[in-house]
Amino acid sequence: MNDFSAEAIGLVIREHRQAQIPSMTQDKLAERADYGKGGAVSISRIERGLVSPGEHRLAAVALALQLTPAQLKQEAEERTRFLALQRGQRPVKLRDQVAETKRRHAEINEKAAQRSKITQEHAEAFNRVHDVVRDKFFMRFVELARSVSGAPEPERLSEETEGTGETPMAIRIEAMSAGIAHAIRGAAAGGAAGAAVGGAAAYGAFTAAALFGSASTGAAITTLSGVAATNATLALLGGGALAAGGAGMAGGIFLLTGMVAAPVAALAAAGFYVLRQRRNKKEEQRLRIEVEAAETALEQSQQGFDTMVDVLSRATAIMEYVEVHGTHSLEKWRAGLPPEPWDWESLGHEGRERYKEFLTVAGCFLATSIINVPVLLTAKPDDVREMGKAVDETLRYADRTIKSIV
User: Fold this and answer.
1) 248-258: pLDDT as tens digits
2) What is the 3-state secondary structure (H, E, C) of 273-287?
3) Residue 94 within any structural domain of the chain
4) Which helix (H) or strand (E) holds 149?
5) pTM
6) Which of 130, 377, 370 is nearest to 256 (CA)?
7) What is the rounded CA–CA span in Å between residue 69 and residue 58?
8) Shortest CA distance to 274 belongs to which of 89, 99, 95?
9) How far is residue 394's CA from residue 390's CA, in Å, rounded to a whole number?
10) Rounded distance, CA 51 to CA 218, Å?
11) What is the span of the domain harbouring residue 119?
């Protein structure tokens, strides 16, 4: 867990940006830190203390400001301590105390509102591209694959990964791809996954069957449910709202409002005192305690919130790549197939290899889709770092694998 607050790192970054000769704009910093389109908005949110950059983003920002990540972190840690000391110095006069508490109350509500806005923006961006890839790549591949008779049954996967030469994430993706292949076979035979029609409904039934309905893949598939896993990092590959036709992130993302609602709820009872023009010392103390509790709640959830923003941003970028390149590659493969009906041998060696590769891309897409973001936000701060590592592994592997294929 970082030893600096989002507010502190934002102030330090803004001061270094403005101290450049000539003064660097937020647009320029975003460009140099490789934030991409609309990056100035991200820099603005960082400088306002709404979001704290992840490790790779922080390193890029530090480089753009001609600093090392260690220097930037050290300054942010020192500023964090300074701000804490400042807040500990309460005004003497009741009138000044009231004014300060009102200001802090307003800041909390504004920050909570901004978090909700940021969450919605990222959720909508992810959901849009996820639904496009679901319909134009995933379900399109399923439709084509169901028409190929005689495709070999996926090999039975083992939970034992030692000595295989593959990473745990590679094993998990392989297990997901095998589950998809089993569900395709079941759908072709008229199984539950094949009964549903229409994009979201078919996807929900199909992915549920791919993850949980194929006993022949053994426990390797079962472990991907993650929700009941004893290893907290595996919980990040949870099933989410698949049965409802969504994905882990797409279906449950608006549950994240709980993380911004909690501090606001803590202040609801205090609202009466905030609106009062006058209040006595007892009322002021009560409100101050509630404000401090809400500030603590926001601060404790900051790392989970930051991780959520990073995960959604990176997952959306992966989906966008599949939307452009994956769908094109799939249609190119379809155009090169012989006339129907298709059987496994008629695909030819290259066609069979592409079939297997698209299965892998589908597995990566599914793994990226069902990352259980809410668990990041409900986890204890000390657990977020380890969970973040597991998510990072998933996203890195999926991104690298997809780009190597399409």
Assistant:
1) 444 333 334 44
2) HHHCCCCCHHHHHHH
3) no
4) strand 148-149
5) 0.78
6) 377
7) 7
8) 99
9) 6
10) 41
11) 112-255+303-405
